Amino acid sequence: QSVLTQPPSVSGTPGQRVTISCSGSYSNIGTNGVNWYQQLPGTAPKLLIYSDNQRPSGVSNRFSGSRSGTSASLAISGLQSEDEADYYCASWDDDLHGLFGGGTYLTVL
Amino acid sequence: QVRLQESGPGLVKPSQTLSLTCKVSGVSISDNEYYWTWIRQLPGKGLQWIGYISHRGSNYYNPSLQGRLDISRDSAKNRFFLSLSSVTAADTALYFCARDRRPYHVQVDVWGKGTMVIVSS
């Protein structure tokens, strides 16, 4: 069981907005911020959001992130079929190690 | 273009040591900006952060693997390594080497394709 808790799955229809939550504690999300990764089937993960709400160059502005206290959220607006993937949150823990959430599979209905 | 490529045996016997190499091209692992990381993905499951070695050679490890784990590097050959001892079936996973661009944040911006390791007799 991961220290960072995510729902196993979420779903939405094309064009809809969905959110994925990530819950941690003061020693990780509460102190060190959150990053989000997208993993398409059969590929390595890709950095989607860093430092809570920043998008790397080339990432669509349909993806946005936020953090409040010891929780964070990833929002995907204008849902598209190609967004169907696993999404992981990640953070650093004050015990000096990295953490990933358990992952959330997004289904586009 | 920065590229990372994992290599190593795909099959390891229980109780033996798993050894993987990550060959890095396009950037020097001694550059003072990056942290060279191993991450694994258990079959059908999520990602697990294993650890990294910094440009200065400092190590940070997942506490659940500490004691069995060593991450080292060969700067001259621009490679870094994973060694995990006393493996069991629970160590069967897809192992990725990767580049973390910021310390203490897990901001991994370049990944290898991954190499599957099966622990079985």
Describe the structure.
The complex is a heterodimer of chains A (109) and B (121). Chain A contains one helix and nine strands, in the order ββαβββββββ. Chain A has 109 residues and is mainly beta. In chain A, strands 1, 3, 4, 7, 8 and 9 form a six-stranded mixed beta sheet that branches. Chain A has a three-stranded antiparallel beta sheet with strand order 2-6-5, with no helix packed on it. The radius of gyration of chain A is 13 Å and the shape is globular. The model of chain A has no long low-confidence stretch (mean pLDDT 96). Helix content of chain B is 0%, strand content 51%. In chain B, strand 7 and strand 8 form a beta hairpin. The chains are: A mainly beta (109), B mainly beta (121). At the A-B interface, strand 3, strand 7 and strand 8 of A face strand 5 and strand 10 of B.
Note the gap between the termini of chain B: 39 Å
Radius of gyration over C-alpha positions of chain A, nearest whole angstrom: 13 Å
N/C terminus separation of chain A: 28 Å
Task: State the order of secondary-structure elements of chain B, H for helix, E for strand.
Answer: EEEEEEEEEEE
Q: Helix share of residues of chain B?
A: under 10%
Question: How are the secondary structure elements laid out?
Answer:
The complex is a heterodimer of chains A (109) and B (121).
Chain A: E1 9-12, E2 18-23, H1 29-32, E3 35-39, E4 46-49, E5 63-68, E6 71-76, E7 85-93, E8 97-100, E9 104-108
Parallel strand pairs in A: 1-9
Antiparallel strand pairs in A: 2-6, 3-4, 3-7, 5-6, 7-8, 7-9
Chain B: E1 3-7, E2 11-12, E3 18-25, E4 35-41, E5 47-54, E6 59-61, E7 69-74, E8 79-84, E9 93-100, E10 108-111, E11 115-119
Parallel strand pairs in B: 2-11
Antiparallel strand pairs in B: 1-3, 3-8, 4-5, 4-9, 5-6, 7-8, 9-10, 9-11
Name the descriptors.
heterodimer, A: 109 residues, mainly beta, 6-stranded mixed sheet, 3-stranded antiparallel sheet, 1 helix, 9 strands, globular, B: mainly beta, 4-stranded antiparallel sheet, 11 strands
